[in-house]
Write a structure and sequence with these properties.
The protein has 183 residues and is of the alpha+beta class. The chain has helices at residues 19-39, 45-70, 125-134, 148-164; strands spanning 11-14, 74-77, 81-86, 89-94, 102-105, 112-116, 138-140. A hairpin with a 2-residue loop joins strand 3 and strand 4.
Length: 183
């Protein structure tokens, strides 16, 4: 049993807070540049207006980065449901209503995401388009400190175990590619 798994078979994976450090640094740099434009005696009214916009926009980005660093989000997985906490909101998916999980590589960004269909979603044009492009109507925006393939394997194992009613043994975490981002 790992540190991220409790006695009931609940596995908790935490999102990386470290990736928000660069967003915070960049946001603070641009916000300070905007502040300098406002306070400078050499800038005209238009430059001061641009400084206000820079300060407001990147100040907000810095606040978001700080919030994400403090509470980066998590995925809690049991045999019957997946709870995702992201940006202060809880989203719950019944694994019995999820299709098999798979990976999708975004060709424009080169990033790989976990995708799946959820039976509780309405059949809208957006869902159909996502299904056609990605192979699923939903995706996870985070891999929670493990490789995407390991996360897909873990989610499919939990889904299969929940569907078969095999709740006696704990979910396996041997295949997880753990990193320092997991607490």
């Amino acid at each position: 049993m790992s540190d991220d798994e409790d006695r009931d078979g609940l596995i908790v994976l935490r999102a990386s807070a470290g990736r928000w450090v660069w967003t915070l640094i960049g946001s603070l740099a641009f916000a300070m540049f905007g502040g300098a434009m406002i306070l400078s005696g050499r800038t005209g009214a238009v430059a001061k207006g641009i400084g206000v916009v820079l300060l407001a926009l990147f100040g907000f980005c810095a606040v978001v980065a700080l919030r994400e660093m403090r509470a980066p989000g998590s995925l809690m997985l049991s045999r019957h449901q997946m709870n995702i906490v992201s940006r202060g909101r809880l989203t719950t998916f019944a694994l019995a209503e999820c299709s098999r999980f798979s990976t999708w590589r975004n060709p424009s960004r080169g990033s790989t995401h976990v995708v799946f269909d959820y039976a509780g979603d309405p059949d809208t044009e957006v869902s159909r388009t996502n299904r056609r492009l990605m192979g699923g109507s939903r995706s996870l925006h985070e891999s929670y400190g493990v490789s995407t393939e390991s996360l897909v394997d873990l989610l499919n194992e939990a889904r299969t175990a929940g569907l078969s009613g095999d709740g006696d043994e704990a979910l396996g975490t041997d295949d997880l590619d753990e990193t320092d981002d997991l607490d």
